[in-house]
Amino acid sequence: MLTVDFDRLGLQPGDRVLDMGAGAGRHSFEMYRRGADVIAFDMDADELDGVKNLFVAMEEAGEVPAGAEADVKQGDALALPFGDGEFDRIVAAEVLEHIPADIQAIEELARVLRPGGTLAVSVPRWFPEIVNWKLSADYHNTPGGHIRIYTREELVDKVTKRGLVYDGVDYAHGLHSPYWWIKCAVGVGNDSHPLAKAYHKLLVWEIMKQPTALKLAGKVLDPLIGKSMVLYFTKPLEAVVPDALGEAQSA
Predict the structure, then answer these.
(1) Domain range spanning residue 51?
(2) Is residue 245 a part of any domain in this protein?
(3) pLDDT tens digits along 34-84
(4) N or C: which end of the chain has fewer CB within 10 A?
(5) Residue 112 within a domain
(6) Residue 241 pLDDT
(7) With 80 as the cut, is the pLDDT of residue 245 above it?
(8) Whole-prediction pTM value?
(9) E strands, 129-222, where?
């Protein structure tokens, strides 16, 4: 289940790409299939082991273009172990809402992105997320859980103040918001509730079979109640600094 639009990100075969907060690797796998040189980065060594094993399986099965490379790296988002301007594209999907020092993490993303490179950042969208928080404290009051809810304006401000240029926003997973509202209403851990079970089956059908009816429903619901907000940015070839009025100017 992908959140980022790789065409909008500008991903090309041979691009060196960082998937920061890769988790189980969903975006890393797709970028590898598209011929990128991928680094899946995360703090969780166990998840990274699974990602690396699947990278190997994909290569052995002939699922990736010749010359594509993929590897994993464990570390801290606040101190990325990479050189300045090392990556052509960066994906940070559903990770910043977990990080207390999010500005420091954003500064690191901006640092390792090359001039002219692009960044996609996805976070839970404000309205669906605030509903979840209101319905259930357990939804976010868990170790490693969500610690903030971003508005688009807040996140754009935080990233552009690190020298990147805002390119626009998409919304994704409109069918998933009602599922989490149901889960929060009946109990986040109550997977046996009939309504939660029925909706979960619908989502599995959507992911596995991609029926036309649900694709169309998603296109309608994504801009209205999409659970994820995806912001796209470019690092300019020249440094961008705010002028006295707070507007970006080339240095």
Answers:
(1) 6-238
(2) no
(3) 999 999 999 999 999 999 999 999 999 999 999 999 999 999 999 999 999
(4) C
(5) yes
(6) 55
(7) no
(8) 0.91
(9) 165-172
132 part of a folded domain: yes
Six-digit token pair at 150? 């971003």
Phi, psi of 91 (to 5 degrees): -115, 130
Helical H segments across 61-169, by residue range: 102-112, 126-135, 152-160
Phi, psi of 206 (to 5 degrees): -60, -45
Measured between alpha carbons, how far is 184 from 131 in angstroms, rounded to an integer?
9
Q: Total structural domains in the chain? A: 1
Place of tokens 């986040």: 188
Look up the CATH number of the domain holding residue 89: 3.40.50.150
Residue 246 is assigned to a structural domain of this protein:
no
Tell me the per-residue pLDDT of 96-144, one tens digit each, with 9 for 90 and over. Answer: 999 999 999 999 999 999 999 999 999 999 999 999 999 999 998 888 8
